[in-house]
């Protein structure tokens, strides 16, 4: 599957319409971003069940700001519309494969339960 360019126009539909989406936040002037691009592109061909998308932080400052991207490249992975991985820096092809394998293995019911528990604890703490 080809790597998609994400914009304000297609961001939400891409995240909500797919099980696993991996985002590469990058900029054209960023050396490490350019170095990582072929690895990202190659991985998109190996992982047909994953949507690979790039967010140009120069052109899509609203998206980058919403996710508080401070360093590029930054990789972010959504599974069932929940951010399950976010890390600045470059990954090797093997590391990227490993991370995607772990994302596939996640028990999303447990992840949602953990999120709900954290939210309840935060609300309880705020009411104390």
> Helix and strand succession?
EHEHEHEEHH
Uncertain regions spanning at least 5 consecutive residues? none
The geometry reads as globular
**How would you classify the helix and strand content by structural class?**
alpha/beta
Helix content: 40-55%
Please compute the radius of gyration using only Cα atoms.
16 Å
Question: Helix tally?
Answer: 5
Proportion in β-strands? 15-25%
Biggest beta sheet attributes: 5 strands, mixed
* Widest β-sheet, arrangement of strands: 1-3-2-4-5
Could you give the count of β-strands?
5
Q: In angstroms, what separates the terminal alpha carbons?
A: 50 Å
> Mean pLDDT, rounded to whole units?
93
Task: Tell me what you see in this structure.
- This protein has helices spanning 11-16, 31-46, 61-66, 93-105, 108-127, and strands spanning 4-5, 20-26, 50-56, 74-79, 82-88.
- It is globular and about 45 Å long.
- A five-stranded mixed sheet has the order 1-3-2-4-5.
- The relative contact order is 0.17.
- The protein is an alpha/beta fold.
Secondary structure blueprint with pairings:
Blueprint: E1 4-5, H1 11-16, E2 20-26, H2 31-46, E3 50-56, H3 61-66, E4 74-79, E5 82-88, H4 93-105, H5 108-127
Short summary:
It contains five helices and five strands, in the order E-H-E-H-E-H-E-E-H-H.
Notable characteristics:
single chain, alpha/beta, five-stranded mixed β-sheet, 5 helices, 5 strands, globular
